[in-house]
Amino acid sequence: MRLIKYMVLLCAVVLALVGCSSDSAGGDGGTKKEKKGGELRVAVPSEPPTLDTHVNTTTISSNIARNIFETLLTFNSSGEIQPMLVESYKEDGNTIEFKLRQGVKFHNGDEMKAKDVVASMNRWINVSSSGKETFKGASFKEIDEYTVLLEMAQPTSTAALVLAYSGGEAPTIMPASVLEGKDPKEKVGEYIGTGPFQIKEWKQNQQIHLTKFNDYSSREEAGDGLAGKREALVDDLYILFVPDSSTRVAGILSGEYDAAMELPIDSVDQLKGNKDIELKSVPRELLLLYFNKKEGLFTNKVAREAVDAAINKEDVLKAAFVNPDYYKTNHHVMLANQESQWYSEIGKDKYDFHDTDLAKKLFAEAGYNGEEIRLMTSRDYDHMYNASIVVQEQLKKAGINVKLEVYDWPTFSERRNDPSAFDITIITNKGKVEPTSLVWSRPDYVGWTESEELNGITSKIRQAPSLDEARGYYDELQAWFLDFRPAIKMGDGDMLFAGRKTLSQLEDVDGLIFWNVSNSK
């Protein structure tokens, strides 16, 4: 099997929260005898709209769902693509052959076989944007019970990278019985996977309760990033929906929560002062302002240019992430810590540019005549809300009548898909392993980007013979982004998380990992 070494966001930064002992175990159990059993209580800022990974892009959905579902491939901490549900895979031009592991059980007791992989992956190709865009014209077919073949319309340099990604719209494997006979576009209601945890209960507006899957078929290699051995060391995993950030902070300080995600940067000193807590941050988020390009004023590119001229990007970053230690001013569309693979100088000299008078002139040219502009946000994520407040003020200085509309996260997640519901919105997106997967480029994501020129550039990147050659087209993508302005990128931000020192470890690889984590409390 050919390993593709690729230093990416997901695996370049693997941070561990370790317990008080200096011999804390790694993901493979290490030298420390892990305590097994008990529970792990994790506070998160929002409730996921669904756990159907094929159709959902939200961070909270993917972070929870990857404990339940698994992918054919994954990444280790060095950025190498590794097998997960396969024994091996072989790329040959426009095909990839996968040899499946035998004896892998679903949570319903059935063994995973080729028919399940074919049903899952063909559905994913047809319903997920990642699948439709990267694998247009491709399909999986069964060779025998434990062998499947991916046939692509042309060789695709990014194919294995996309298949290994476990974030939004992850290509996870489900039983064929759950999918067959149903409209592929209908969300799955039964969450049955092969992961170390299985779902026991979902209490709306309260929590999701996962339990250890006793028949889980772990890999034997040492745990490394998202690869290798996975073991549910706790019997019960509670994901608690806690929208108020101050409540998450208070709960991790008191011990009500064992871990907490998306903590506010202004709580750093308070959290660092507690000897029972380990606090870490990881660069993971792209802060973007999205335009509704399907209806209203911002179908006009000149209006989008006007907003860009009005905004001081670093002021927005400061509002969102408070402390310069936790954000980076970054002009290009990938994360700064991915620059060994993806970097462009284009636009670097214009990052700091903002001109209120020019913004007023451009708004007039675009035909703006004082109508209300709806800036939609959610208080469930402090950085989004605080950034929105600053953008509102900056646009008001340019003479724009901006109304801030604030919703809880589930409502926001629903309304952002409705072109009649907003004009602009600010969202943090997780970085992706390669630029053609960035969600602002999609016609079905917030903002509804449609561009034949963009399609041509992404095709060049995907169909390049190698990743080294693919990165040669990154300048073209960056130039198009700055000209078309499907969104405005403010910069990069860190995600702050904390765990009690009773935990043996807590890692973040594109989200917190809950397997291989024990709790000694």
UniProtKB/TrEMBL annotation:
Keywords: Signal. One of its GO terms (cellular component) is periplasmic space. Residues 1-25 form the signal peptide. Residues 80-418 form the Solute-binding protein family domain. It holds the Pfam family SBP_bac_5. SUPFAM superfamilies: Periplasmic binding protein-like II. This is ABC transporter substrate-binding protein. It comes from Cytobacillus depressus.
